[in-house]
Amino acid sequence: MSEKIKLGILGGGGDSLIGVLHRVASSMFDKYEIVGGVFNPVWEENINFAQKLGLSENRIYIDFETFIEEELKLPESERIEVVSVLTPNFLHFPMAKKLIENGFHVICEKPLTTTLEEATILESALKKSNTIFAVTYTYTGYPMVRQMRQMIQLGVIGEVHKVDIQYYQGWINPILLDKELRKTIWRLDPKKAGISSCVGDIGTHAFNMAEYLTGLEVKFVLADLNTRYKDNQLDVDGTILIRFSEYVKGVIRSSQIATGEENGLEVKIYGTKGGFNWKQENPNYLYYLTDDKPMEVLKPGHAYNGEVSLDGTKLPPGHPEGIFDSMGNIYYGVAKAIRNESYDSGEYPTMNDGVRGMKFIEKCVESHKLGNVWLDL
């Protein structure tokens, strides 16, 4: 049996949703062992959380710089191999850059950085290294999303000509209504979140899904964003028209103020011979539409699905799988890459996906500021 990949984690301590999601995901397929890291900038909280996880205190570090310094002192066979960066956006770039330059593989939360310039610097650094870099666009890990992608690649729905992706949440709405409270949220702070809240947080997921599923690149965008209040600097809602080409178009709708919505990512892709409909809140159902026969419903775990979809399905048909499994499939793909095993190009989002996401964010913000005009991506 091969030795497990030694995993370090930066951020994600306490009751962080992202933290538990990544930790559980890494435990699937028995490919990783969490060794240490820096879970919180406050030492007492950092060490207490590590103790709850049952980790050795000598691999829990007071800060990121100490993490790098001390890990590099260890023999390569004992050293942490891959690091998950789960911190607020503004820390992604400095951490990822130093990790790449020191030979660590990286699994980084999205958006990749806070600016496109930072993203391109990371891209250049990665090209000079011999490391694996993944960006956790989590929803690409769902088995039925991967099945949809494969069927589109095989031409099942013909030539794609319409893409409609909606990602609606409502969590920030009650916070936004309180003038003082909205000043306390890091996602609304440009110094920590970057130039966008909604598009940067969830709109970029929808954009990634559009390119991941269709295999096409968005060429132009036109954005209409909403900050809702004058004293709120970052967008909390947006509608973005997208063009893949002159006759292949679509729309991305994202919102953090869709009152009452939970995590409403919905994908609709139409081609010349058929279409697909998939919803993240009910992810085990992929609806296949055509003009000449009743709608079909495809589900995970059945033999009619493709190899990549089946490889990411852990339970027999009828047993629901969800967001933890989706992230687990991304970690599984990264593990294959690290161990030089064969894997499909769609098994984990790459640095290129992260850079594309940053281009999308910056062009959407620019398009809005210029008066809602078309911009070349």
TrEMBL record:
In what residue span(s) does the GFO/IDH/MocA-like oxidoreductase domain sit? 145-276
What is this protein identified as? Answer: Gfo/Idh/MocA family oxidoreductase
GO molecular function term, any single one: nucleotide binding
Q: Give all residue intervals belonging to the Gfo/Idh/MocA-like oxidoreductase N-terminal domain.
A: 29-137
Matching entries from InterPro entries are given as: Gfo/Idh/MocA-like_OxRdtase_N (IPR000683), Gfo/Idh/MocA_oxidoreduct (IPR051317), GFO_IDH_MocA-like_dom (IPR055170), NAD(P)-bd_dom_sf (IPR036291)
Record organism: Wocania arenilitoris
